[in-house]
Amino acid sequence: MDRQRRSHLAHADHPIAAPIADESVARLLDRAVADEADRALDLGCGGGEWLRRLLVRYPWMRAEGVDTHTAALERAREGAEESEVADRLVLHEMDAAVFASAHRFDVVLSVGAAHAFGGLLPTLAAARELLAPDGHVLVGDGFWEREPDAAALSALGATWDDYADLATTVDRVVADGWTPVYGHVSTAGEWDDYEWSWTGSLSRWALDHREEPDALDAYKAAAEHRSQWLSGYRGTLGFVTLVLRRSP
């Protein structure tokens, strides 16, 4: 099964592609969107769920999203049309790491997309170039909740230095010239809901569409992911979402 189609099916019941509950998403957006903000950008927007919610919640704002995946951007357009915010959304099909704009943005988002830039700090470097002087960055990435063992690293296809612990992660962000003005560490409950939704949605689709050529592959992918999570990285990989401003 195509990776993007699999991701779309797996996120059917949890459209935010990160272990963040709806109420946490709303709170993070409220901390990132100042009263005078009127323009937002999502680097690596995927299906556009963050931008859709932002545009619904703040009807005066306009937004742009950047992603390389045609199908994901089409879902973003469809979601925006369903929520009647499509007239305030512009989507760009291109590599987020090389996106440039003639104007700056009051809010720059990039949650769970650091791989597109080569890590958290390169993600922030890209955001800095596009951020208005008093703007906010909303960025989310992984960290080690505890020292990863071989099972966790194998399940994630990761190495020990792909992430740091939470304190070191925040220290690196601060040393890079940013001040956290809010942050959210995903809870065990948010992680479990996300992973059960991911594996459950994909499994359910496979069981309901047994005649589809991709059904068996989807079923196996869900089972493998569930095993990697439960026997590998559950309780080891954390996720932090930070609201940042430039330091003085």
UniProtKB/TrEMBL annotation:
One of its GO terms (biological process) is methylation. Keywords: Methyltransferase, Transferase. One of its GO terms (molecular function) is methyltransferase activity. The keyword Ribonucleoprotein does not apply. InterPro entries: Methyltransf_25, SAM-dependent_MTases_sf. It comes from the Bacteria. Residues 41-135 form the Methyltransferase domain. The keyword NADP does not apply. PANTHER family: METHYLTRANSFERASE, SAM-DEPENDENT METHYLTRANSFERASE. This is Methyltransferase domain-containing protein. It comes from Streptomyces asiaticus subsp. ignotus.
